Amino acid sequence: GDQRFATGTYDPASQFRAAKVVEFFEDHQLTPTVLRKQYLDQVGLLKNLFLEQDFDPEIITLRHQRPLEENGGFLALQSPFARSIRAKLMDNGVFTDARGDILRFGPAPYTNSSQIKQAITHLASVLQQINP
């Protein structure tokens, strides 16, 4: 009938995945308020751990000094080596995002504090290999 080409131009798989994500969030009471608090806590931990390392500002710095409440769900770092750092972190199983000279660490509802600490430890290791 008229549905034989229904997926010819549209794949509904993303809608089914989205429905499962919504169901998961509801089951675990992951409301926008809960998630925002978690992101603020996680990004705050990332930021504090990053600052404790006192990295060479010629290699990497915080992108901005705004309060966390003005931040999205990422810690944005600026480095002329952002893409290289990202690739080396990926080799260590640390998934980040690099756009131009911005390296972004983005925690998630399934990320725990131990993993955040490990990510900064891997970052420190990677940065030791860089000579400006």
How does the overall form come out from the CA principal axes?
globular
Give me the strand/helix succession. HHEEHEEH
Strand percent estimate: 5-15%
What's the β-strand tally?
Answer: 4
Describe the fold and architecture.
With 132 residues, this protein is an alpha+beta fold. It contains four helices and four strands. It has a four-stranded antiparallel beta sheet with strand order 1-2-4-3. The longest helix has 22 residues, at 32-53. The termini are far apart. The model has no long low-confidence stretch (mean pLDDT 92).
Write the layout of secondary structure elements.
Elements: H1 13-27, H2 32-53, E1 61-62, E2 75-78, H3 82-91, E3 97-99, E4 102-105, H4 113-128
Antiparallel strand pairs: 1-2, 2-4, 3-4
Helix pairs in contact: 2-4
What brief labels describe this structure?
132 residues; alpha+beta; 4-stranded antiparallel sheet; 4 helices; globular
How is this structure best summarized?
The chain is of the alpha+beta class and 132 residues long. It is built from four helices and four strands.
